[in-house]
Backbone:
């Protein structure tokens, strides 16, 4: 290290402090990287890798660099791939430096702490997730540095960490930090790890409860965290404190725009776990496509980034308070009925930029004049919005509360109007931001600089006339300053008072004493002008930063107004109706429609849903594949979710008794990478539902038991039906789709169960799906019809019909050619089955007294006995 240049010594010092980050080391007009960092950066950014000098071991030093002014185009590519980047900047002006320029890391950019507009390019929250825990008690916090939002919760999880995973799936963080003990928990990290989440181990001290508690109190300037709801939640405090410390450490700022913690609890919202979010396609399609083919894609017609973020949070956490839901529905209803108000509001809101992130950058200190101009334009419509709401909204409620939350920023608007140019440059260091008339001293410097440049322009013509050299030019560059340029052919005509300054390929550059004197005057004025402009900009920025809390509250109010106006617009355009939401256990929907499917399907057939806690609590739905069972179940759940976020719904009438959780087991997929088959995944998801569903829940189950043998599958399906119907003695509202049409016989035995089926019409060998759900049971599966529709060769389906006929009349069994059919007949009550001791033992099982695990063990024993074991 002693043989290194001073600059390389600075580089290695920075790398030693930030071993897990790629170092962007500022050298003149470039950010350079060296060694292994250079190899990574060259590969990921597809730039040239070269070598220069020697490293500490005496080997060739790999080198890769990017122009400093292009960093905003390169940096996001690294951050999105999960890398940390430490910016090692020049801390002094190289022109003023004595010896080597001082350098130091000014910030570390990570996926979850990005704040720059080039890094946070969409309106979604960019969350840093922080997890702490003791045993199975976890604290989870989410921090968005770009908006200043910090939220936290604490809960008891299970050994599969399902609740931690549900929070991660709901909030979709870009990065997650864990203390060493949790980071080394392979089961947890494997579940958390995904292409979208970068996992990082963070120092244990940051998660210590005492440290976190004191750091949070100090940051927020409070004596207790009681007012933020987490005083008695040690794990929540630990995770929130660690998130804030991590952000401050990486950003090397105080982050004053993070002004509070919001503590939330499961009891405040409908719980939608990661499986339900996927199966119902709440924010993206099940195939992982963008939100277009999702519930959010249908509803999100917001005009502001704040509204878009708020709506996303709402669909991920529907309310379970009748009063709050009703208040939101009242607000939507008001705007539905007032067409002109709705039009005006959405027009004004469309001009409002991302105030939350603008404030974040202003307080953080990396804003520019264009950010302030965007803030001004966003504040201008607020008086008109306020006036229009007051004229149209008379009764108290959510809209009147929104009006009260708007701040008065007329002084900020006037200041920015008076101070800023209408089209300021991106850089705040090069001048051109401040209007004439704002500052007298700045105006003088502008005149001095302009006068000097006019003198330069006049000098060129004077010298051409004096020397007779028509091609003579007076130019400027940042290295050599002002010069007089003469081509080689005209050098004999150069006057004696010209002093040679530089030789070029095409001629010579000169200066005169008068030009040198004027240059010093102009450059001095320019430097002073730019320095004063930056000083004035910083003062204006600080004045606005002092109002950050008020501005954040106004931004939140505008976002909520945007959501209400959007839900009203979507309701009108899509023919939605206002639902009634109450505390009963009844769900009554007339002419319900699937909000996503109906947009892409001409002639969507609506259906009714009637559920209660008496005779219609458990709906068993039969019918062929492709008939619409899954769509029907999903649309019921989505209508419930829409109602509980305060949205109108796709139906002619809807009354929804509050649902605390929605559970789904819909569709099948393999997770072979983790060694789990389709059936194993089905059983794991089923276990979660059976263990956690409450009488206020809504359960959607599709084809339970189809992933194993007919005997096992039917037995499991029947046991599940009985268990859910009788759980906690009152049962759970459920929609259960199945091909085991023999389960329909349970309708008489289970008093809260009703049979429904999807109507179909047979026309010869063809099958017409009517898409209508009607009372009663079906006695056929129509599998061969569906196979024909799917394009299975005609010879195969014709032969299948022959085999089916043989099976149905028992001929195949008598000849001993279809043992699987014999199993079915034995299971479903044939003459042969009555002689089986397995069936007798099955009939004697007391399923109601069994736990799910005991039931599965009993089934395993029966299967072994049936197979002769």
Residues:
């Amino acid at each position: 290290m002693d043989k290194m240049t001073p600059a390389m010594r600075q580089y290695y010092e920075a790398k030693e402090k930030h071993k897990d980050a790629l170092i962007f080391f500022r050298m003149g007009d470039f950010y350079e990287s060296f060694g292994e960092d250079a190899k990574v950066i060259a590969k990921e950014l597809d730039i040239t890798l070269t070598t220069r000098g020697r490293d500490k071991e005496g080997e060739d030093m790999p080198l890769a660099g990017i122009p400093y002014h292009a960093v905003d185009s390169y940096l996001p590519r690294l951050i999105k791939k999960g890398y940390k980047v430490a910016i090692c900047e020049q801390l002094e002006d190289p022109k003023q430096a004595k010896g080597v320029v001082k350098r130091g890391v000014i910030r570390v950019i990570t996926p979850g702490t990005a704040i720059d507009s080039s890094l946070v390019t969409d309106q979604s929250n960019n969350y840093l997730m922080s997890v702490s825990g003791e045993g199975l008690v976890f604290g989870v916090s989410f921090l968005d540095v770009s908006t200043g939002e910090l939220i936290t919760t604490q809960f008891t999880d299970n050994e599969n960490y399902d609740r931690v995973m549900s929070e991660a799936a709901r909030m979709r963080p870009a990065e997650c930090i864990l203390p060493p003990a949790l980071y080394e928990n392979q089961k947890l990290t494997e579940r958390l790890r995904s292409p979208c989440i970068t996992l990082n181990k963070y120092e244990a001290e940051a998660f210590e409860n005492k440290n976190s508690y004191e750091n949070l109190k100090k940051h927020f300037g409070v004596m207790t965290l009681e007012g933020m709801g987490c005083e008695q939640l040690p794990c929540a405090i630990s995770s929130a404190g660690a998130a804030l410390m991590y952000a401050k450490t990486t950003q090397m700022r105080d982050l004053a725009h993070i002004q509070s913690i919001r503590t939330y609890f499961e009891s405040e919202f409908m719980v939608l776990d990661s499986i339900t979010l996927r199966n119902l396609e709440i924010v993206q399609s099940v195939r992982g496509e963008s939100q277009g083919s999702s519930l959010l894609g249908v509803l999100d017609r917001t005009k502001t980034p704040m509204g878009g973020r708020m709506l996303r949070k709402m669909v991920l956490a529907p309310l379970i308070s009748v009063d709050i839901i009703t208040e939101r529905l009242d607000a939507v209803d008001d705007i539905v009925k007032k067409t002109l108000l709705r039009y005006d509001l959405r027009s004004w809101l469309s001009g409002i930029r991302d105030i939350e992130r603008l404030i974040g950058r202003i307080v953080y200190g990396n804003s520019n004049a264009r950010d302030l101009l965007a803030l001004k334009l966003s504040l201008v419509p607020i008086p008109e919005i306020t006036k229009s709401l007051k004229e149209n909204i008379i009764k108290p409620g959510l809209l009147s509360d929104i009006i009260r939350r708007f701040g008065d920023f007329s002084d900020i608007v006037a200041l920015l109007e008076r101070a800023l140019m209408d089209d300021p440059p991106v850089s705040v260091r090069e001048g051109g931001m401040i209007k004439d008339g704002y500052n007298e001293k700045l105006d003088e410097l502008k005149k001095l600089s302009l006068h000097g440049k006019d003198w330069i322009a006049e000098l060129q013509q004077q010298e051409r006339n004096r020397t007779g050299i028509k091609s003579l030019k007076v130019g400027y560059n940042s290295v050599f300053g002002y010069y007089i340029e003469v081509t080689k052919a005209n050098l004999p005509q150069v006057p004696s008072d010209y002093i040679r300054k530089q030789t070029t390929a095409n001629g010579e550059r000169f200066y005169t004493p008068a030009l040198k004197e004027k240059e010093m005057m102009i450059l001095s004025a320019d430097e002073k002008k730019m320095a004063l402009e930056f000083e004035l900009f910083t003062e204006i920025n600080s004045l606005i930063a002092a109002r950050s809390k008020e501005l954040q509250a106004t931004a939140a109010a505008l976002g909520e107004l945007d959501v209400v106006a959007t839900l009203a617009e979507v309701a009108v355009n899509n023919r939605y109706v206002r639902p009634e939401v109450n505390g009963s256990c009844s769900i009554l929907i007339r002419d319900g429609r699937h909000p996503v499917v109906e947009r892409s399907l001409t002639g969507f057939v609506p259906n009714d849903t009637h559920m209660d806690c008496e005779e219609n609590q458990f709906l068993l739905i039969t019918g062929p594949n492709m008939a619409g069972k899954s769509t029907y179940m999903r649309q019921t759940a989505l209508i419930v979710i829409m109602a509980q976020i305060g949205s109108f719904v796709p139906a002619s009438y809807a009354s929804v008794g509050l649902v605390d959780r929605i559970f789904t087991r819909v569709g099948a997929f393999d997770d072979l990478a983790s060694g789990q088959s389709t059936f194993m995944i089905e059983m794991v998801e089923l276990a979660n539902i059976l263990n956690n569903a409450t009488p206020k829940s809504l359960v959607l189950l599709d084809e339970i038991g189809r992933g194993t043998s007919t005997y096992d599958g039917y037995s499991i399906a029947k046991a599940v039906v009985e268990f859910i119907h009788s759980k906690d003695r009152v049962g759970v509202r459920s929609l259960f789709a199945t091909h085991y049409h023999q389960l329909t016989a349970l309708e008489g035995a289970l008093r809260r169960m009703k049979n429904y089926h999807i109507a179909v019409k047979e026309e010869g060998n063809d099958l017409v799906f009517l898409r209508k759900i009607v009372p009663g049971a079906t006695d056929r599966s129509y599998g061969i019809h569906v196979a024909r529709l799917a394009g299975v060769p005609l010879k195969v389906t014709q032969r299948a019909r022959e085999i089916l006929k043989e099976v149905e009349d028992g001929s195949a069994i008598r000849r001993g050619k279809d043992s699987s059919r014999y199993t079915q007949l034995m299971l479903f009550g044939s003459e042969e089955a009555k002689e089986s001791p397995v069936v007798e033992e099955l009939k004697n099982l007391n399923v109601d007294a069994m736990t799910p695990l005991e039931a599965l063990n009993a089934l395993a024993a029966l299967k072994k006995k049936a197979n002769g074991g």
